[in-house]
Amino acid sequence: MLLAVILLTAPGTTHAAEHLVRPGDAPQAVLDRAAAGDRLVFLPGLHQHGLGRHRAMLYVDKPIEIELREGATLKLADGVCKREKTGEITTDQDASKSLDDLEVGGDFDLSAPTADGQELYGATVFTLVIDRAGTGGAPDTFAWGHGRLFDTPHKHVPITGEWQELDHGVRVRFGQRTGHSLRSLWFISYDGPEAYGIRIGHGRQRDHIEDVRITGQGTIDLNASRNAQPSGLVKRINACVLVHGRVRRVLVEGITMTNTMRSVMCYGEHTGEFLPGGKVGPGESFDAEDIVIQYTRTLNPHGAAYLLGHPSFRGQLRNVRCNHNYMETGLTAIEPNFNLDGYQLIGNVIKSDGQAIHCWRHSRNGLIADNLRIHDNTGKPVVVVNSPRGWKPPAPPVLRNNRNHLSRDAAQGERGT
Do 169 and 96 lie in a common domain? Predict the structure, then answer.
C-alpha cells in the first residue's frame, strides 16, 4: 500500500507533512509515524477498520489535523463488537440509596432475546428495585424483570444475602438483608463493548493533548446495525468522536456522523471515589476544555448526538461551543451534562424523536440561543432543564429565541420536570 507524503511550507513556518490515507491504508500506523502538527487526509472511498488503541479506529495523542474529504467514509467493520456474558451494574441513577450493595454473577445466556425498546440499543437489561422495606426482622424485598426499562413483573422477592437466581443464567446478591431505601434502583446490562471512531485522549493521560482538528466533508460511520451496542445505561458507550481527559483546543467541523450511539462526546476524568449525587472523594481531576463543534451533521435515527459532560467520569469540561450543526436523532440531540462549565448552543437545527436540548444534571454558565426544532407538530419544547433525584440541578442557562418550527408558540424556553 502506498502512502503519499507532501511537504507543506510557508515563509517563517516549520515544515509540516501532509499524509494522504487511501482506502486500505492503516490510519493508526500513519498517525503514529506523523509528527506533531502534520496533516492526515482521508481520500475518497471506504476506509473500513476494526478497533485498535483504546478501542478506537483512530487514537489521537498529538497535535494533528485530520481531514475527511468528500466521499471518504471511516467505517467500523462488521462484527467487531459482540454481546458479552458479563453484566455491568448501573447504580447511581439518584442519590437516595442508603445501601448500594448489589453484586451480579453467573454467565448470561447469549441466546436470550434482545430487547425491543429503542433506549436499550438491542441489549438485555435487568431492572431491580427495592419494593418493600422489611420490618420486625423481616428482610427487604425487591422486584425485577428484563425487557423494557422499569418493567418488574416479579414482585416482593425476599433478600437472602446469598446468591439468588433470576433467569438466563443471571444471579444477584445483596450484601445486607435489610436497611435498603424503598425504590432504590439498579440496572444490569448485557450488551456489546464500546467502540469509537476517532478518540482524542484515554482519560488519564498525564500531559495535555492539544490542537487537534477534525474537518472535511466526509463521514464517520460506527456501523451500529452490524455490531452489538452498549445498552445506553452503562458507563462507556459508542461515539464517532470522543474527547476524554486532558485535552484542549479541539475543532470538529463539517463532517457527517452516523449509525452510532452518540456522534460527539466530551468529558473529563477523575480518580476519586464516586459518591452519591455526583460528589467525588479525594483524587486527581483530568479536565477537558476549549472544544468547538460546528457545521457538522448527525444522521442517527436510532441514537443521540452530542453529549457534553458525563456523570460516570466526573472530571471537568470547560468552554464548549456546539454551534450551527444539523442533526436527526431518535433520542436526545444535545445534552449539556455533568460538570460542564461554560457552553454555547447556538444556531442548531434539530429533528429529534426525543429531547432536542436536555440540560441534565449539573452544568452552568450556558447560552442556548437561536436553535430551531423541526418536524414536530406536537408542541415539544426545544429546551428542557432538570436532574435526577438527589443530584444538583443545572444552573439555568441563558435562553433566547429557541423555536419549535411547527409550534404555535413563537419561542420556547426552559421547561423543568
Answer: yes
Is 145 within the bounds of a domain?
yes
Same structural domain, 14 and 136: no
Contact criterion met (CB below 8 Å) for 313 and 270: yes
- Between CA 172 and CA 292 the distance in angstroms is 44
Cβ proximity of 350 and 375 under 8 Å? no
pTM for the predicted model, two decimal places: 0.92
Q: Strand ranges (DSSP E) for 223-348?
A: 239-244, 247-253, 256-258, 262-267, 269-270, 285-286, 288-294, 297-300, 306-308, 317-323, 326-329, 334-336, 340-346
The mean pLDDT values, 10 residues at a time, for the chain of 417 residues are 40 73 98 98 98 98 98 98 94 76 94 63 91 94 92 97 97 97 93 97 97 98 96 94 98 98 97 88 97 98 96 95 98 97 98 97 96 95 92 95 83 51
- Residue 205, C-beta contacts closer than 8 angstroms, at least 6 positions apart: 61, 245, 246, 286
Residue 162, domain extent: 88-190
